[in-house]
What we know:
Blueprint: H1 2-11, E1 16-18, E2 32-44, E3 52-64, E4 78-79, E5 83-85, E6 88-97, H2 102-105, E7 115-127, E8 130-140, E9 146-158, E10 162-173, H3 175-182, H4 186-192, E11 202-215, E12 220-231, H5 233-237, H6 239-244, E13 248-262
Parallel strand pairs: 1-3
Antiparallel strand pairs: 2-3, 2-13, 4-6, 5-6, 6-7, 7-8, 8-9, 9-10, 10-11, 11-12, 12-13
Amino acid sequence: MKLILIAAALLSGGTAAFAQTSTETQDDTPDLRIRVGAGAQTRPSFVGADKNDIVPLVRVSIAKGDNEFRFTAPDDGFGIPLFTSGGFAVGPVGYFQSKRTNEDAGVAIGPVKRTIEAGGFVDYVLNDSIRLRAELRKGIGGHDGLVGQVGADKIWRDGDKYVFSIGPRLLFSNGRYQRAYFGVSPTAALATGLPAYRPGSGLHAVALASGLNLALNKQFGLFGYGRFERLVGDAAKSPFIRQYGSRNQLSAGIGLNYTFTIRR
């Protein structure tokens, strides 16, 4: 059951949280509380798009015993903390990036295939209300580039009754990633009339992300998120983005949670 839920979260671009605990049942095996959320979200059709798609939103969180569900921000990649010490957590992370076709772009700029991004993350919890996080991922297929994100979250929570967070983000990438989404190759320049453009590496966006989980009772709850991203640097200067895309990227979603317990 656990593997099925984890796979569902990865394929949907959701995140999963695995809480550490010292609470145990009489046979020294803690029960598992599993929170499954489903809803809908609007997000850019592709990186730099000027229009949004409505797609499913799935979240899965797992906690042991009576421990709180571990905090995750709405734009975290799918990560599993393999090592924890003090306020640090380190582990692998994955993300699913949607494709871009010429039809999506509205011009023959060149396609970018769907991409699985795999890498690692580091969390550091300063206290109960501040979390820092960094991710670095490599594209497997698709853009084939490197992309990363660093950010901080201010957190307000009352156990699992409610959790609200908000915080800034910095997004950076290498030249291969930026050329895939923001560049104009000589071939594309001939096809589109846009000037050829070869962006470099570095900071390509800044963002602000906010999330909310609200328990209605012990079984049901609501969750939602909002995220605004602004392209900067070479990405913002792209002739393709300026004429056919948008420097402003907005995502938002809402859904319903259901929590159940697996006795062990």
